[in-house]
Structure formats: structure tokens, C-alpha cells
């Protein structure tokens, strides 16, 4: 038996038990892949992150759901940076790069106090793919009707590091009715069966927010719902810039709200900028330390 210390951080919130929880294990270099997966399963959060040494960046982050390893996770990235920064492991650096399976990404931090530490991460270039499945089956799988889906803009797979299915919804009221059956996603998302499902709309609870969303996990992840998602918010911002407000000039700043329906409301700041024919995507948010706990590894 090996005892592993896990730190619990809540991300996209300054308040404990709001936003999205992530586990961070700071001694990732001492663990095998099997141990990382076992720890993530026992922790049970949507993602647990393991910072490790990198030969090409300041450090590398490995991301694990309870079921499998991920290429990238926005909220677990912010949790890891917050953990390293507040534990004095990044010295006075405010800009650095991280290695992920989605590529090498730049990170920036700014703060007046520890509680105000704002972490900004560049995401991978956005990609979109057509969804060819049944919108009726898709709607049923998340507990709504096909008529709740906005037919004026497309349902698309999108990625800025992790693939999700972006589903535009007409009205905010529909989100309270949603009850995902994640196992059904496998037969509906035939082009990308490991993708998650990300319904969103332009109506919001908070007047300063631009978009509202929920995020339902891949059937392979071992979880049901992600409270407040960084990578999905990033690609959702890119979707907004491409399909809803493509006439913006240089920068587009958005606030995404998420988590209200499960009592975990948080905020993600998204900045979109034009880069030739492509878009650059950055997300930003806060984090808060909640507690540390031990997990026993049997491997």
C-alpha cells in the first residue's frame, strides 16, 4: 500500500464547494500510469491532475478521469497552476508553458492577493466537425425534446484540446429539465463516441454572462456531469465567434456561466481573437483550495 496526498481545489470560483472540483497530486513523477488511473478512480472527481517534469516546457500535466486519461482539461490545468503557484513551486514566474497531450500551451498568472490569483491559459486551435446523428435521439438522451434545440445554428463537435458536442438550446428553462443518460451517447455520437455533450444557450441567469451551459460526460469517463468546464467553454466561445457573432473586430470577450442546476455555479472568462483565418482561444478563472486528503494505492 502506498499513501498518496491529494489536494482538492474548486475552480472557476473563489468560494469552496462551488465551481468545478479537481484533484491535484504534486508528486506525479513518482507514480506509474496505472497508479495515476487508480488514484483518479478513487478520488472520483471529473478530473485529477498530475504535474510531472517536461523536457520541452516548464512542466507537463497528465489528466485522468475515473475512467481514462484525457488530452487536456481546462479546470484541472487551472487547479494545478494554482497549486504550484501557492505552494511556491513556480517562484515569481507569471508566464510559462505547459506540455499536454493537446500540445504545448502558454499560461499567464496575475494577482493582487492569493485569493485574487487569475490564471489564463491558451487553448489549442479550435476545430469543428459535423454531427450526422439524430437530433431527436440526442435530445431524448439528455431529457429534453428535439424542439428545444435551436435549429438556426448547427449542432457540431468542437475541440480546443478535447472533443465535445456543442448543442444550441433555445431557452434557459430547458436546462432544468435535463437528465442525461450518458450510456445512450455511445450509440448517438457515432462519429466521435468518446465525446462529451455540451448544451448551451444565450439566455443566462446572471445579466453579465453571455452564455449558459451544462456539460455531460463521455460514457467512458465514469462520471455524469462536469460542473464548470474550461475546454468546453473555450470551444463554445470559438463557436460563438464563428457561427453567432462572426463580425467582431479584433477581440471578443465572453463570460460563460455554468453549474447552477447542480448547485456548483461558476464563471469562465473566454477571450477570442482573430489569427488570420483561424481563432486564438484563451480561458481564465480563479481557484480556491478546499482540503487535502489521502488515497491508498494498491499498485
Specify the helix fraction band.
10-25%
CATH class of the largest domain: Alpha Beta
* Percentage of β-strand residues: 35-45%
The CATH fourth-level homologous superfamily of the largest domain: Diaminopimelate Epimerase, Chain A, domain 1
What is the first-to-last residue Cα distance?
Answer: 7 Å
Q: The biggest beta sheet, please?
A: 17 strands, mixed
The structural class is: alpha+beta
At CATH level 3, the topology of the largest domain is Diaminopimelate Epimerase, Chain A, domain 1
Q: Which shape, going by the Cα principal axes? A: globular
Mean pLDDT: 95
Short key terms for the protein model shown above:
about 35% strand, 17-stranded mixed sheet, about 300 residues, alpha+beta, Diaminopimelate Epimerase, Chain A, domain 1, globular, single chain, two-stranded antiparallel ribbon
Question: How would you portray this structure in words?
Answer:
With 299 residues, the chain is α+β, with helices and mostly antiparallel strands. The protein has two domains: 2-122 and 286-297, Diaminopimelate Epimerase, Chain A, domain 1 (Roll); 127-285, Diaminopimelate Epimerase, Chain A, domain 1. The protein is built from six helices and 19 strands. The protein has helices at residues 33-43, 74-86, 135-141, 174-177, 182-188, 230-244, and strands at residues 2-11, 20-24, 48-52, 59-64, 69-70, 95-100, 103-110, 118-122, 127-130, 156-159, 163-168, 196-201, 211-213, 215-216, 225-226, 251-258, 266-275, 278-285, 287-297. A hairpin with a 3-residue loop joins strand 10 (156-159) and strand 11. The protein is globular, with a radius of gyration of 18 Å.
